[in-house]
Structures are given as structure tokens and as C-alpha cells.
């Protein structure tokens, strides 16, 4: 939904005094530059994006406090990031504990912020108080500008050290809102590359806007002119509709929002006709990817409520077994969002919520409200229950099929698939498995590999599209069973990373349309049933060359059309022979080793999971049963295709 962007007043804004007395200091800043990964996760592109998220999170906290309704994020042509909000503005008066301006304290001291004392924020996502100071420490330069008390204040920093005092640099019009503008440039001494990805940032901003009803987030990338604005009047109900855009829902979304003992509990639920589950939990707008007490409370309430309704409606008879959690979650799309004053996260990464009281609070809210929904919508309730019963029958069939796959230990050589050419090294930390398209390429890979640490599993043709099949049907597929057995971790709820037989799982397919399709089918399988491989960085995609260029006595392998164009421009006067590889099988074993499998020469892409909710929606669009969304995607992106094999 579109909304006019203004710096107007926020309705019902709290009147709490927000000044230097609200800022509490716990310790200094030095460790951030020594161990940046402890504070932002990594120094690769994920850490680079985390810098932006940390600054935006502070602005989100102002929105959660009811004093901000607009956040603007801009990346300019030089990769300088600007984050502006129309909140109260960081306090600039003297902080009694340090004798310095509160702005300088916030920007240069770890664990300094308004989230430890009383009255600054009732709810905050940046609870540890290290976010913006860590960004400052890891930036080549940082500039903070504050509008409050009728004046504009500014301070500049370099790698976390103040370079100026907090100065008054002007005044702002009376009709203009207070707020904070923060500009920074990441430190090249810390980060491997300064290259922000628009889509990754946009996905996170969209998510934040879904979770903060009434907030507008405006995002502009001046490097290529792309811009997006996010505003969702429906909040998490809109979030559920967005995730289910390419699915067939069984009912309109159910949503409840309720205050319980100081905590805000919001839950949105909608069942669809798909076979997977899409449930995402948040605490103070932070995506708790490992769940926690709020997710446990939700799942307990959902299972109990549906069982109670099924028995009351006489769908489940006296001697029938209860529906399990797996039964009631197939086809479920749900958002569980809680906002609380004192969240207890496992670490600065905030992957799991630990507050014991949230389990009971979410449980009671969902039980009462969802029970009422089922009573008042009997037709939709029956459809949901019937889907759960169908899932229960399929679950038993899947259990029997799964037992056939994992009955023997994957660590015993006798249980491994016959087509697998295993490596001699049994240390999983040093070994890797190539999943190869076709017997021809598999033969070349087996001959060209280093037998000590490289295993080869050839696949015959295209595997089943798991997006359109239940687990029991999937486990009857010979190629999928061979992969599961070789990898050793099991699938779905039975996935155990500790049983992984190879440190790297590498997908190696042809560089053509069929190869791309097979690669997508494999990625869909791993995302849906072995997501832990992606989360922990064990899944890779091999990058075989597309061309071989021979000019005189020189031979050179080229991996894509962009590199070929660059080579032609560089060697305009040279005569050359160009060979295009349509398949891996066209390369002899020595060529395949040298270009694609030799660790000293090869290039591989590590598969990562930047945004689970967006990945979920994308796989559903590309591999699901609905044709129209896939057709729209192809029509939109067809102009970007350079070569198409037919």
C-alpha cells in the first residue's frame, strides 16, 4: 500500500523525557576492530550488510517507541550509506557518568544506550547497545547529525575515534521533525569488498516494515537508480499474504494481537495446499532463526487447539491417535512476532529467544483466539482438519519409506549406494562429495578426481521436483534416496548435521539450460529437506568453464559470456579458436580436474541463506504448482538472458 512520505507527527507519541540521563555505559570500544566477527558476524558481504541493519535497527527502535514513522536509507555512488529517521534524535546533552555529550557516548562506547536503564525504550531490538558503536568502529569514517531542541548537532569520527566535538551546525524549521541522520563508509582494512546488494537489503527492509505497522521505509540506491518504498497497513497479515502469493490458501488469514503482562503478542496464520511449512518467528523485530520459547508456545497451542476441535467435531474418534505437530504444520504459513521489555537472547546474533514467560503467554493467546476462529469458521476449520488428517496418513507412509533409506548407518560402507565412488579419507572435515549430472560427466569426474578426499555421486537425469511431492513420494525416488544415504544426515525433522559424511557437498552440472534446471531441482531439495547444510556453509555449486579459447600456443578457459567479451576486447588483434562446452562430459578427466575440481584452480559458489522467508517464496514461485507467477517471472527477466540452449 502506498503512503505519502512526510515528517509529520506520530499519533499518540509517548511523552517520556529522553535525555542524557537515560544513557548507561558498561565498557569501551577496543575489541570491535580486533574481533569484528563477534559483533557483526563476519567481515564478508554478510557483515557488510549487517552494518546497515545495525544502524536501521536503532531507527526501528524509535518506531517501536511510537516516535518515528519514516526511515530513509540511501546508498550513493561511492557506497556511502545514509540512514535518516524522524525520531526524537540521539540526546546531545552532557552525560553525567562520563562528562561527555551523550551522542559521543552512544557512538564510541560499547554497551552504551538507552536500553539498559529505565524510560529510554520500553521495547528495543538493539538490546546489547553495541550496534551503532560497532558500526562506527568498523567504518573508515562516520558522521552523526541530530535534529532536536531546535538545533542541528553534528560529530565526525574515524574508525570509532571522535575527530570533532559535538557542534551546533545550524537550526531546522519549526515545522520539521526531530530526528537523526547517520552517514558512514565501511573500513577497507576490515572488509574484503565494499559492494552492497540491493535485493538483500530490500528484503530485510520489507520484513521490518511488515513487522512494524504504520512505518514507512524508503530505500534508494544511487549507484543504479533503483528505489523501493515499503509500507504495510496490515502488518503481519500482509506478511502472510505476501508469502502465500503463489499458493492456494484454504482460508483468509487469521490474526491476533494482544498485550499480556507487558508483552505484545502478534500471530498470523494461513493454511495453503502446499506440503511444506513456512513459519517465521520474531522478537522485537529480530528474526529468531533458531526459534525459542515464543515459537514453542505457538506450536504447542496450535497442535492442542486443532486436536481439541477435531475431537469436539467428532472427526477424531475416541480410539484415534492425536494429530502430531508435523501433521498440523504441513501447508502452514505463520508469523509469530513478540515485543517485550527484557528479551533474553542466546548471543549478539539473537538467533533464539529464551524468556520462559513467553511460552505461556503465546500459548494462551493462540489457544483462546484460534479456538474461537475455528468455532466461528466451521467450513474453513473442516478443510484444515482434513488436510491434517491426510498429512497424518502420509506421515506413516513416509516413516516406512524413511526407514528403508536410513535403516543402516550411513557411516558403514555396506549401506552406501552402489553408484557412489567414495573417497579413501574417512575424515569428514577433509572430504567432499560431488553430485554430478549424468553418467558421462560422472565417469570423467571419477577419473579426474583426487581419490583421497573427493567422492563422486552421478545422478541419472532430473530428480523429482520435491516442491510438488510429499515426503513419502520423495523417498521412493532412487536418485534422492542415493543422495540422502551418501550424505548421511537424514532429512526433514530427522536431519542431524553431526552425521554429515562430507564437509563440502558440491553440485556440478552442465553450463546449459538442462544443467540449470537440474541444479535448481537439487537446490530446492536441499532447501526444503537439508536446510542445515546451507545454514552451516556446507553446500557449494561448481563453476565449470563455458569456453576454451586457443590463440597460437596459448589456451585459456573462460567461465561465462561476460569474461569472453572482456577477453575479446583485450585480444582484438589475435586470431583464436573458440570451443564451447555444452556439457561436462565433453571435457576429458584432466581438463575437468584442472578447471573445476582442483582446489588450487577451481572457482565455487557457496550457497548461503540471506533471507529464509524470501527464499521460501522464490522456491515456491519457481518450483510450485502455480504457473502464472512463474510465467510472470520469466517474462520479467527474459531480457537478461544472454544465451539460451534449445
Can you give a write-up of this model?
It is built from 20 helices and 26 strands. With 646 residues, it is an alpha+beta fold. The protein has four domains: 211 residues, Histidine kinase-like ATPase, C-terminal domain (Heat Shock Protein 90, 2-Layer Sandwich), CATH 3.30.565.10; 167 residues, 2-Layer Sandwich (Ribosomal Protein S5, domain 2), CATH 3.30.230; 187 residues, Rossmann fold (3-Layer(aba) Sandwich); 34 residues, no CATH class. The strands form six sheets. Strands 2, 3, 7, 8, 9, 10, 11, 12 and 13 form a nine-stranded mixed beta sheet that branches. Helix 3 packs antiparallel against helix 5, helix 3 runs parallel beside helix 6 and helix 12 packs across helix 18. The longest helix is centred in the middle third of the chain and has 29 residues. The two termini are 41 Å apart.
Amino acid at each position: 500500500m502506498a503512503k505519502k512520505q512526510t515528517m509529520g507527527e506520530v499519533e499518540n507519541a509517548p511523552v517520556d523525557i529522553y535525555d542524557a540521563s537515560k544513557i548507561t555505559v558498561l565498557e569501551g570500544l577496543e575489541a570491535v576492530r580486533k574481533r569484528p566477527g563477534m559483533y557483526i558476524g563476519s567481515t564478508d558481504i554478510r557483515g557488510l550488510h549487517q552494518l546497515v541493519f545495525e544502524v536501521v535497527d536503532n531507527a526501528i527502535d524509535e518506531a517501536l517507541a511510537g516516535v518515528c514513522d519514516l526511515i530513509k536509507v540511501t546508498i550513493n555512488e561511492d557506497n556511502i550509506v545514509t540512514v535518516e529517521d524522524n525520531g526524537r534524535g540521539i540526546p546531545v546533552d552532557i552525560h553525567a557518568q562520563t562528562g561527555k555529550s551523550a551522542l559521543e557516548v552512544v557512538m564510541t562506547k560499547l554497551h552504551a544506550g538507552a536500553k539498559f536503564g529505565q524510560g529510554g525504550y520500553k521495547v528495543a531490538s538493539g538490546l546489547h547497545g553495541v550496534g551503532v558503536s560497532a558500526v562506527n568502529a568498523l567504518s573508515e569514517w562516520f558522521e552523526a547529525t541530530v535534529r532536536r531542541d531546535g538545533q542541528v548537532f553534528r560529530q565526525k569520527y574515524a574508525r570509532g575515534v571522535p575527530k570533532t566535538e559535538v557542534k551546533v551546525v545550524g537550526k531546522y524549521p519549526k515545522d520539521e521533525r526531530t530526528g537523526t541522520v547517520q552517514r558512514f563508509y565501511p573500513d577497507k582494512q576490515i572488509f574484503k569488498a565494499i559492494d552492497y546488494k540491493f535485493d538483500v537489503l530490500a528484503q530485510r527492509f520489507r520484513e521490518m516494515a511488515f513487522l512494524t505497522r504504520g512505518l514507512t521505509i524508503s530505500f534508494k540506491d544511487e549507484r543504479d537508480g533503483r528505489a523501493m518504498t515499503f509500507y504495510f497497513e496490515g502488518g503481519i497479515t500482509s506478511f502472510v499474504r505476501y508469502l502465500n502469493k503463489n499458493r492456494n490458501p484454504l482460508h483468509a488469514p487469521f490474526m491476533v494481537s494482544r498485550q499480556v503482562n507487558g508483552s505484545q503478542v502478534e500471530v498470523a496464520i494461513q493454511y495453503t495446499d502446499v506440503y511444506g511449512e513456512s513459519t517465521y518467528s520474531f522478537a522485537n523485530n529480530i528474526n529468531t532463526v533458531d526459534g525459542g520459547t515464543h515459537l514453542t508456545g505457538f506450536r504447542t497451542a496450535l497442535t492442542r487447539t486443532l486436536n481439541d476441535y477435531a475431537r469436539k467435531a467428532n472427526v477424531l474418534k475416541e480410539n484415534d491417535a492425536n494429530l502430531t505437530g508435523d501433521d498440523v504444520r504441513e501447508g502452514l504459513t505463520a508469523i509469530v512476532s513478540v515485543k517485550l521489555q527484557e528479551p533474553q537472547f542466546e548471543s549478539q546474533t539473537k538467533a533464539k529467544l529464551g524468556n520462559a514467560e513467553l511460552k505461556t503467554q503465546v500459548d494462551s493467546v493462540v489457544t483462546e483466539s484460534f479456538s474461537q476462529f475455528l468455532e466461528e469458521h466451521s467450513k474453513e476449520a473442516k478443510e484444515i482438519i482434513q488436510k491434517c488428517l491426510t498429512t497424518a496418513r502420509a506421515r506413516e507412509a513416509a516413516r516406512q519409506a524413511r526407514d528403508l533409506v536410513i535403516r543402516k548407518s550411513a557411516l558403514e560402507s555396506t549401506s552406501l549406494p552402489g553408484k557412489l565412488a567414495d573417497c579413501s579419507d574417512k575424515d569428514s572435515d577433509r572430504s567432499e562429495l560431488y553430485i554430478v549430472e549424468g553418467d558421462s560427466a560422472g565417469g570423467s569426474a571419477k577419473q579426474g578426481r583426487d581419490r583421497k578426499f573427493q567422492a563422486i555421486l552421478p545422478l541419472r537425469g532430473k530428480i523429482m521436483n520435491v516442491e510438488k511431492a510429499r515426503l513419502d513420494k520423495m523417498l521412493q525416488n532412487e536418485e534422492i534416496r542415493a543422495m540422502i544415504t551418501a550424505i548421511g544426515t537424514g532429512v526433514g525433522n530427522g536431519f542431524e548435521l553431526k552425521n554429515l559424511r562430507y564437509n563440502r557437498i558440491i553440485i556440478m552440472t552442465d553450463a546449459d539450460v538442462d544443467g540449470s534446471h537440474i541444479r535448481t531441482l537439487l537446490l530446492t531439495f536441499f532447501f526444503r529437506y537439508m536446510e542445515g547444510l546451507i545454514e552451516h556453509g556446507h553446500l557449494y555449486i561448481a563453476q565449470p568453464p563455458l569456453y576454451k579459447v586457443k590463440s597460437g600456443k596459448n589456451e585459456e578457459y573462460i567461465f561465462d559470456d561476460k569474461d569472453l567479451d572482456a577477453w575479446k576486447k583485450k585480444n582484438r588483434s589475435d586470431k583464436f579458436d573458440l570451443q564451447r562446452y555444452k556439457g561436462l562430459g565433453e571435457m576429458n578427466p584432466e581438463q575437468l580436474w584442472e578447471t573445476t575440481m582442483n582446489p588450487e584452480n577451481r572457482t565455487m559458489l557457496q550457497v548461503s541463506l540471506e533471507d529464509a522467508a524470501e527464499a521460501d517464496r522464490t522456491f515456491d514461485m519457481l518450483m510450485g504448482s502455480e504457473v502464472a507467477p512463474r510465467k510472470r517471472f520469466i517474462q520479467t527477466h527474459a531480457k537478461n538472458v544472454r544465451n539460451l540452449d534449445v
